[in-house]
Amino acid sequence: xxxxxxxxxxxxxxxxxxxxxxxxxxxxxxxxxxxxxxxxxxxxxxxxxxxxxxxxxxxxxxxxxxxxxxxxxxxxxxxxxxxxxxxxxxxxxxxxxxxxxxxxxxxxxxxxxxxxxxxxxxxxxxxxxxxxxxxxxxxxxxxxxxxxxxxxxxxxxxxxxxxxxxxxxxxxxxxxxxxxxxxxxxxxxxxxxxxxxxxxxxxxxxxxxxxxxxxxxxxxxxxxxxxxxxxxxxxxxxxxxxxxxxxxxxxxxxxxxxxxxxxxxxxxxxxxxxxxxxxxxxxxxxxxxxxxxxxxxxxxxxxxxxxxxxxxxxxxxxxxxxxxxxxxxxxxxxxxxxxxxxxxxxxxxxxxxxxxxxxxxxxxxxxxxxxxxxxxxxxxxxxxxxxxxxxxxxxxxxxxxxxxxxxxxxxxxxxxxxxxxxxxx
Length: 425
What we know:
425 residues, alpha+beta, 5-stranded mixed sheet, 8 helices, 34% strand
């Protein structure tokens, strides 16, 4: 019996390279590989020629891109035929090694109407079009034109707490239309505020944090709005967790997938400009804020990271592209930084202190900017197209003296800039 067993074992080793994994069907191996991080998949490819060929499959890497970037980005890239210029594996590597952007100034043909210069407006990519609404302009005026569901400070300096739903629809004859409806909510709702951060999560939920409330007090509370299926009713509830981000305004809150969000920067209680990173996931159980602690001096060029009035947008590859803003001396910026979420370990478990210079250099990367040089700006707005490869930046406050001079010494910009992620073909 022992001799038979040994003979059988040797036969198996000679035929299959010594590993029963060779018996697994290719589609089952694909399923297993998609459960692994990319580094593990690349290690698996080194096992033998068969596995190396399997892990070089364009079908596998398209699935990995879909897993890590989201189906919307992949479908948009396929529709644009951009992926035909590069295999999916190479495209994945190019995105992960992103080190520069190319800026284009977009201008209207002569004679066409364009939004007036403004700041603190909203900008969204809807049905392949940019939809811009509201914001502030010279003389402290706040606008209500749609080119924003802007709930902020009115001309008298008061703040609001009402909640509105805007429905965007596409018509063959009317084009894109926007209609507003005041949302019916329960007795519990956030207090009046402006300069808060907000983002949409999980399809029918919105998270807000902080802002400036009555009498100019900075707030540090977190609220979630849940919308009904018909979008006619909503329920606000507060997330009370310890620890939590300190009170602030002018920060960003960005959804990074599902119910996970990341908060960055802003202006704190002491009027100091911040650079801290906080993660929040409200999927199940008790929602919890987790802070990622790091030292600025360990980030190459990190002394310029603290900012308020910036934008933080999820781009192709699942990273955050942070641009613009201003420092504690109100010096405005025109730089571009990428925050690589995947480089941060155990973000949902406990507060993490990152001391490794190598890890921080991977987590934070300042991108080179070529092409048109945008003005330094703050309190602008940005959004990406469906692929996540193109970022649109509009408006904001820029340096310069108005004629006649604005009472606050501010200049509002009406420039539209296209920022392209540079991928090597």
